[in-house]
Amino acid sequence: MTVVRRTIGAAAVTALICTGAAACGSDDSGKGGAATKAQSHSEATQALTAAYKKTADAKSAKVEMVMKTPAAMGAGGGTMKMTGTMGWDPTVMDMTMSGSAFTAGDADMPKNIRLVWQNNVMYMDMGAKAAADMDGKRWMKMDLGAVAKSSGNEALSRQMTGSLESANQDPAQQIAVLLDSPNLKHLGSAQIDGVQTQHYKGKLTVDEMMAKNDSLKVLDKADRDELLKSVKKAGIKDYDTELWVNEDDLPVRLDVTMDSAQGAVEISEKFSDYGAAVQVQTPPANETFDFMEMLKKLGAAASAGADTDV
Fold it and tell me: Which of 112, 68, 60, 90 is nearest to 278 (CA)?
């Protein structure tokens, strides 16, 4: 049960980050740099359109992401950091995760968890202690589409599958969403980790974000309306997005803040080394245990225990 608790906790946080299916050096933070005349809305749109095209063509980059969630949200509350290499079109990742979102209250949880993603399947290295509990198998295999289908929620299944196919973590798609912000603004020049950038900001309401999020197009109107109702019930009103683009029209940093009834969710991503090769090697089958199979065995054991009690 210890390894189950660790696995489910890690899986919940990772699913939140990697699928978007939850419905819901130095960093000068935009200061410094040579003075730049503020761009008009049309000029900002033109600049970000160029950034979208360059980023889509790059197809991969090194990434450093930090996510902060309020403790009131339960599983995943705290800070999580992910660093490594990511590719899009198709989605592929080799990242290392760490932070209090995983380790809080569980001394057995490894301080660092490696995540490998290929062909819409995630593999997570749960550490030596997990291997001791799982017949020497330390890698958890998790097919997120299969997890959604097992819930019996067909809408969730279609939405999660759509999220996987549209590669929510693709920074080009994140730029595309920002381009649709009706109040897109250019905030001037800034230095991020010593790199000269142009700083942009935009805000979308929940309704606007739902309308622009390609991963939700797989849902019919009734399912979209239900999801929108759930998001609003959670207290999420809008999404604030800030983007810093370098002189090569490539994103250097992207920040997203979502306010909810439980508190603000803050995500900050930094990108570098665009076009970096992502060579993912998935773990051998004899070193993996399937997340869904583990849950099925737990369910069967629980049912047998209930029958015995009767």
Answer: 60
Cα–Cα distance measured from residue 197 to residue 29, given in angstroms and rounded to the nearest whole number: 11
Q: Where in the sequence is the domain holding 50, given as residue range(s)? A: 2-24+27-295
Residue 7 lies in a domain: yes
pTM: 0.75
Number of structural domains in the chain = 1
Identify which has the larger pLDDT, 264 or 211.
264
pLDDT digits (tens, 9 = 90+) for 237-260: 778 899 999 999 999 999 988 877
The CA distance from 169 to 86, in Å, is: 9
CATH code, 275 = 2.50.20.20
Please report whether residue 145 resides in a domain.
Answer: yes
Question: What's the rounded Cα separation, in Å, for the pair 304 and 227?
Answer: 35
